């Protein structure tokens, strides 16, 4: 609805690293992706200066910036954005007359507590409500959520929703028309979404069972997130922000010989790493180059969805491969240097 077609050069701001479906959808609709960088040194936090710089550069090229997308908790980075950073985005959108697109589908996937230093999930809607005034009355905010990524769908059941704040009535009418094209809805996903939005309430017969099952799923995901993050951070040349939103996105140092081998095979170094990991262990990961990353850095994304009964084997195989990779391409000297 924001992109008017290829003749208009309509731009959408997207965080880097990004969920690749955003860049693909923007290209399909004839828009222009306007990248802005997340700050890995600040737990993949929002760099608002990067956003304003990206807007200025895009406009200098004749691009009409119409939307600012952010993902919180992040994909692939797994970070949680603090209220102050979300407020800055709202102010930018108000000043620049840009619609804020809040991808908050991983909001259930914040596993650690405040004592561990993990930031809590903060919704854009709650920050906007507290801001009040012209921000509340004028900022256009579209919030996205799903049953597919939390305690219910677990990447299986599919069902999504969006809430539009300050959207023009005629535009919202057109959105309903587009949604109505889907004549055969995903019934199980819609049922699950309805339960997510209206769960059993205290006093109802199923409430205690609902709370018990939901709590155990999230606790299990939390244990897996911590175990995988801790294991990654023990490896030489690897650093990883606390895993969240079902993913860990570690940064990896790749030996020069591996970089050379990747170039000879016409692939990115982290693609070489992920392919050799797959062949050696059967563990499927996604190279950071598929999401976009700062030049000279390498990452990969892995989920934390491995079954707890197989978690020890998963970690053991991942660690074995990493050390063998360093030995193969860098030798003991490179590992010792790291």
From TrEMBL:
InterPro entries: ALAT1/2-like, Aminotransferase_I/II_large, PyrdxlP-dep_Trfase, PyrdxlP-dep_Trfase_major, PyrdxlP-dep_Trfase_small
Alphabetic keyword roster: Aminotransferase, Pyridoxal phosphate, Transferase
Residue ranges of coiled coil: none
Domain Aminotransferase class I/classII large: 8-317
Record's keyword annotation contains Transport: no
Obligatory cofactor(s): pyridoxal 5'-phosphate
Pfam families on file: Aminotran_1_2
PANTHER family with a match to the protein in the record: ALANINE AMINOTRANSFERASE, GLUTAMATE--GLYOXYLATE AMINOTRANSFERASE 2
Self-association and partners: Homodimer.
Similarity comment: Belongs to the class-I pyridoxal-phosphate-dependent aminotransferase family. Alanine aminotransferase subfamily.
This protein's name: Aminotransferase class I/classII large domain-containing protein
Source organism of the structure: Tetraparma gracilis
Lineage, top ranks: Eukaryota, Sar, Stramenopiles, Ochrophyta, Bolidophyceae
